[in-house]
Design goal:
Layout (H helix, E strand, L loop, with lengths): L5 H19 L29 H10 L4 H19 L4 E10 L10 E3 L6 E6 L20 E5 L5 E6 L5 E6 L8 E6 L9 E11 L22 H7 L8 E3 L1 E3 L5 E5 L2 E6 L2 E2 L5 E4 L5 E6 L4 E5 L2 E7 L3
Parallel strand pairs: 1-8, 2-7, 3-8
Antiparallel strand pairs: 3-5, 4-5, 6-7, 9-11, 10-17, 11-12, 12-15, 13-16, 14-15, 16-17
Keywords: Signal
Protein name: Conjugal transfer protein
Pfam families: T4BSS_DotH_IcmK
Length: 313
């Protein structure tokens, strides 16, 4: 039997005295004791509060069996698990790429590098840099592997892989082009163990012909270097080894000039008015020119003549 609290024992003693006095008929008996007796001394201190009953303790254990520190530790572990599940097995590096499509028999197909949860966009342009619109929706042979969307009468469509290891192709018909353009699609190699890889966030495909919206200009077709890898590297902003970037005084915005031997490679959105040997353009209007070394470059910007002076030494 649990030990009675002091206050409870006092109350029981008083009540017992009352009952005994009433039963024996002794007059003058009260909770204070017999008349004339010495009164009991008061009990000092504060009576402690009663603890939880076993039933309450069991209910508390069922409602919250863990301590606050244990709950916080489990929350940290759960967060770490969710981060590990959400993190891709292979990290991706998105790039904007451009290349010229060969329509000749036996040529290799252009490849669109994809990744799960990353949409990639493909654009088409002709040899003059003008957009080349699609004639029909892209033909998707497997909708379970790829989701393909396009805007009618535009030169753009997008591809979203539905699995991490998908491969296939898509067929595109362009307005006025008698042959289809077939593009290989891949979202990763299951046999590869690399930790990161590049994907095509945007792939600009150049068709080596003049399209229905060909830009009228004085550039002879022979000077358009459609298959020149060196000019393509400069146009993509990744100059080849041996190229030295020159400081330039003046000129339009976003002007970049490199030198290799006796040749200058000029990258800009403005039109170059000087004589050049070869040129190449991208879908966003950026152009690349190759010309002999010269101390002065002349551009046409909004009808104005703007000059730039590269520091050759």
């Amino acid at each position: 039997m649990p030990k009675l609290l002091p206050l409870t024992g006092l109350l029981l003693a008083v009540l017992s005295g009352q009952v005994l006095a009433e039963s024996t008929g002794t007059p003058g008996t009260s909770a204070q004791g017999t008349r004339g007796s010495v009164p009991a001394s008061p009990i000092s201190g504060t009576a402690p509060l009663p603890g939880l009953s076993p039933a309450a303790q069991e209910a508390a254990a069922l409602d919250s069996p863990l301590t606050p520190d244990e709950i916080r530790e489990l929350a940290k572990r759960l967060q770490a698990t969710e981060q590990a599940l959400a993190a891709p097995v292979t990290s991706v590096v998105p790039r904007i790429s451009s290349l010229t499509v060969s329509l000749s028999p036996g040529a290799s197909l252009p490849v669109l590098r994809l990744a799960l949860n990353n949409a990639s966009t493909v654009t088409f342009q002709d040899s003059t840099g003008a957009p080349w619109p699609l004639a029909a929706p892209p033909m998707n042979p497997n909708e379970h592997l790829f989701q393909i969307n396009y805007i009618p009468d535009s030169p753009v469509f997008s591809v979203l892989p539905r699995t991490a290891w998908a491969s296939g192709n898509v067929t595109v018909l362009l307005k006025g082009l008698e042959v289809p353009v077939i593009i290989s699609l891949t979202s990763g190699d299951p046999d590869s163990n690399i930790s990161s890889r590049e994907i095509d966030a945007r792939l600009d495909l150049r068709i080596p012909r003049q399209g229905p919206q060909a830009a009228a200009g004085p550039t002879p077709p022979a000077r358009v270097a459609l298959h020149d890898e060196t000019l393509q590297a400069f146009l993509d902003g990744t100059p080849p080894d041996g190229a030295r970037r020159l400081k330039v005084r003046g000129g339009p915005d976003n002007l970049r000039v490199w030198r290799i031997g006796d040749d200058l490679y000029v990258r800009c959105r403005a039109m170059l008015r000087d004589e050049f040997e070869q040129t190449l353009s991208s879908a966003d209007g950026t152009r690349l020119w190759k010309l002999p070394v010269t101390p002065l470059l002349t551009f046409s910007v909004d009808g104005r003549t703007v000059t730039a002076s590269p520091e050759l030494e």
